[in-house]
Amino acid sequence: MQSIPQSTKERILGAAEVLFAQHGFDGASLRQLTAAAGVNLAAVNYHFGSKDRLIEEVFRRRLDELNGRRMAGLARIAGLEETTLEDVLGAFIRPALELSHDGNGSLFMRVLARAFAEHDDTLRKFLSENYGHVMRQFTAEFARLLPHLSKEELYWRVDLVTGALTHAMSGFGMIQRKSDVTERTHREQAASHLIRFAAAGLSHP
Amino acid sequence: MQSIPQSTKERILGAAEVLFAQHGFDGASLRQLTAAAGVNLAAVNYHFGSKDRLIEEVFRRRLDELNGRRMAGLARIAGLEETTLEDVLGAFIRPALELSHDGNGSLFMRVLARAFAEHDDTLRKFLSENYGHVMRQFTAEFARLLPHLSKEELYWRVDLVTGALTHAMSGFGMIQRKSDVTERTHREQAASHLIRFAAAGLSHP
DNA sequence: TAAAGTGTCAAACGATCGTTTGAGACTATC
DNA sequence: GATAGTCTCAAACGATCGTTTGACACTTTA
Description:
2 copies of one chain form a homodimer.
Chain A (H helix, E strand, L loop, with lengths): L7 H20 L2 H8 L5 H6 L2 H27 L7 H16 L4 H14 L2 H25 L5 H19 L13 H21 L2
Helix pairs in contact in A: 1-2, 1-4, 1-6, 4-5, 4-7, 5-6, 5-9, 8-9
Chain A binds a DNA duplex (30 and 30 nucleotides) through helix 3.
């Protein structure tokens, strides 16, 4: 129950996230979208300029939060003597899982997985320019903790970890929470699975 | 140089695979597609009935070959005493890598990755009905080789392996072959990376 | 109170989509 | 040589797309 009604911009962004996750960027039309948001068709172009700019805003809103938390988590442990691989993976994975269980945030991971599959150059450039430093910093920390790996080996493994996490967090095959498990417990179990899997794949001899 | 010209159906299927990989199922129009294939616009509906049926045929053509090879590889080793986890993973991964390096087959893995991201129910049902038995059989063999894992643990890990392989084989971040390495060598290196990573992720304690 | 700014609305724009049509070319059958 | 079947072709169909327009209501500024 929201006593203060959402602004038109916020209603559009919310509906866009849901419909982009369900039907893709092309598949979700502005007519569907504005109808779902309860606003006029012309509102998207008035407030965002174009559909493409709306798509960018959908990303920016969630990724600023997501990667901000990731960098904050990494900053707490990076470079320390006692830091483990699991710690670094936790800093990368847990913010995404928290987002997944926050309102419509879970749908955003589906939107993100779509963006990866699209191979769209404009979108990739946008993601790389705005958030590329996050992956670079995490990779640097992995390199410090896995000194026995060559640069090529490490890149391979980090790439495979990225694929596994994107796939899992997009909810493609995510195992459903049972009714006798609290959501918090389930989230912790999911994080544990992901982290242990990734750590094993990254660090094997 | 093909002395025997391809049939209209084959030209459409070839062009469809390329354009679906590049622009997606919605993004690639029949007008682009038929122009690239050098055939008339109406040829798609004449030979395939509709765009959706064309999409199904694009999948069927490659997946029959791919999963046929996977099942043949699995049949050679399934249930044997001396079979290793790496053997089973090899039977699953190598046919996909061979496809990736065969003509336009590499683009098909991108098409497949798109299909996963789409979450389209019709397509998922089609894939599950026609090729679901392949994943079930491989999972059964994994279960035999990893008896210490609970059913839930195993499903989690197999799902994460699937994500990593789909991601990697779609060529998203696949490390480029260097010019001083033969294609065959590079393919073997890729298979080795994937198999070792997946084996570590599946079997860790 | 007049002017300027902000936001919403129905309606229309031109473009592009998947699909259908009907005429015509070609081959095989009788 | 007429007939039936297979295939190709240009053209058009209706639908839907993202975007633009101009009128109108409301608030803020002067």
